[in-house]
Write a structure and sequence with these properties.
This protein is of the alpha/beta class and about 425 residues long. It has two domains: about 325 residues, Rossmann fold, CATH 3.40.50; about 110 residues, ANL, C-terminal domain (GMP Synthetase, Chain A, domain 3, 2-Layer Sandwich). It contains twelve helices and 21 strands. The protein has a nine-stranded mixed beta sheet. A four-stranded antiparallel beta sheet has the order 10-11-12-15. It binds 5'-O-[hydroxy(phenylacetyl)phosphoryl]adenosine. 5'-O-[hydroxy(phenylacetyl)phosphoryl]adenosine binds next to helix 5, strand 7, strand 8 and strand 12.
């Protein structure tokens, strides 16, 4: 454990959260006009919020609120105190902009040091950081986290797959940081280049996050690289990576002394109990530049509080199933890309490289999954491919309760991503636009 607070008694932790929550509400009420107006409209004064039990009385904050106050309108400090700015890619509309004071960067380093410690990384370790450096929080987040625990950080950033492998081998990387899809890509290219993944590399842990990964893909990466899989979860609005990470027991723990999580019903906004699946909502209680009350992440997961053998008392969280806005509704049935991925990893002969294509035929939605075969399947005859295709279609029907058409494509023909993979091609909207 990096910090003893990770194993604190619940009462101690809640007292700390409550104190920090009171301070946060006090600050945003006086420093951020947006929050003052919202709280006034609800008739809430800062003194009404006494403890974490009062959290649900506070209003939600949406991504749209950040966009509406683009770029710096929700900052709670003058720009003189903002020493770093990051931003999310913003595929739809304006990017969301986040700022950090010196204190915020200390908090970030702290939670990233906890993350690195989950994989037992410290002095003497070589951290190969292939998250993108730049406005994206992955690169610099892991960079400073690695330095904070005293490891030697290689700031390799994304791209240049073959050079990455060369550096990992020659510098003796013991930890790899990147998205799970890029880690898979690295393993494929390493095999092609004739590396022996277990003996040519010294990796002991991988810090994978920024996108969902099914348990099947996680296991494939553990096996490929012979490593401990540390999942890293976070989002730029809250801090970047460093909101939660998996301990050696395999449980994702939320660093709730800084970020208080709740699960809500995404339709009604009602708070759900532990163990129930819904949308994750986070309140920051130590951030200075951009404190957020009940930020709706759109990520779907569950929380649970059973004790963990690692000794951490921090709340447990399921791996993210997907984002509510990535959830496909196909003929009325909900489907997450990670569910498709899980089927692919169960069936031998394919790789977890896939694209989900959704079309509309008449009134019905049609779902097709393009899947890359592995090399050995590709060499098999037509008959074997037909059997594999049918097997996948049956498994998808059993697991997802919808009819899926599978199209097997040749190895290494689907586009690879250096960062977050793009899994969905939804052609329904463009078609209806074309028609109208
Ligand atoms: O992806 C921060 C990050 C960088 C996390 C590196 C982990 C590692 P954003 O670009 O703002 O920030 O995207 C945040 O990515 O709301 C989730 O939908 C998704 N995401 C992040 N981590 C995970 C994860 C970074 N472990 C959005 N599993 C979040 C599933 C994840 N989804």
């Amino acid at each position: 454990m990096w910090n003893s607070i990770e194993g604190a008694f619940r009462e101690e932790l809640e007292a700390l959260q409550s104190r920090r929550l009171r301070q946060t509400v006090e600050r945003v009420y006086h420093l951020v006009p947006f929050y003052r107006e919202k709280l006034d409209a609800l008739g809430i004064k800062p003194r009404d919020i006494r403890s974490v039990k009062d959290l649900s009385r506070l209003p939600f904050t949406l991504k749209q609120d950040l966009r509406d106050h683009y770029p710096f309108g929700l900052f709670a400090v003058p720009m003189e105190q903002v020493i770093r700015i990051h931003s999310s890619s913003g595929t739809t509309g304006k990017p969301t902009v986040v700022g950090y004071t010196e204190h915020d960067l200390k908090v970030w380093n702290e939670v990233m040091a906890r993350t690195m410690s989950m994989g037992n990384v410290g002095p003497g370790d070589v951290v190969h950081n292939a998250y993108g450096y730049g406005l994206f929080t992955g690169g610099l987040g892991f960079h400073y986290g690695g330095e904070a625990v005293g490891a030697s950080v290689v700031p390799s950033s994304g791209g240049f797959t073959k050079r990455q492998l060369l550096l990992m081998k020659d510098f003796g990387a013991t930890a790899l940081c990147c998205t799970p899809s890029f880690a898979l890509h690295l393993s494929e290219v390493a095999r092609e280049e004739g590396y022996d993944l277990h003996n040519d590399f010294k990796l002991k842990a991988g810090f994978f996050g920024a996108e969902p990964a099914s348990e099947g893909l996680r296991q494939a990466l553990r096996d490929a690289w012979n490593i401990q899989y540390v999942e890293a979860y976070g989002l730029s609005e809250i801090i970047g990576p460093g909101v939660a990470a998996t301990c050696p027991e395999g449980r994702l723990h939320v660093f709730e002394d800084h970020f208080i999580p709740e699960i809500i019903d995404p339709e009604t906004g009602e708070v759900l109990s532990d163990g129930e699946e819904g949308e994750l909502v986070i309140t920051t209680v130590t951030k200075q530049a951009l404190p957020l009350l009940r930020y709706r992440t759109k990520d779907i997961t569950r929380l649970y509080r059973e004790p963990c053998a690692c000794g951490r008392t921090l709340v447990g969280m399921d791996s993210i199933k997907g984002r509510s806005d990535d959830m496909l509704i196909v003929n009325g049935v909900n489907v997450f890309p990670s569910q498709v991925e899980h089927v692919l990893t169960k069936v031998e002969g394919t790789t977890p490289n896939y694209v989900i294509v959704v079309d509309k035929k008449g009134v019905l939605d049609k779902l097709e999954v393009w899947v890359e075969m592995d090399e050995s399947t590709f060499a098999d005859g037509i008959g074997a491919l037909e059997t594999l295709k049918r097997r996948l279609e049956t498994e998808m029907l059993n697991d997802l309760y919808i009819n899926v058409r599978v199209k097997l494509v040749e190895p290494r023909t689907l586009e690879r991503s250096m960062g977050k993979a793009k899994r969905i091609m939804d052609r329904r909207e463009s078609e209806s636009l074309e028609r109208s």
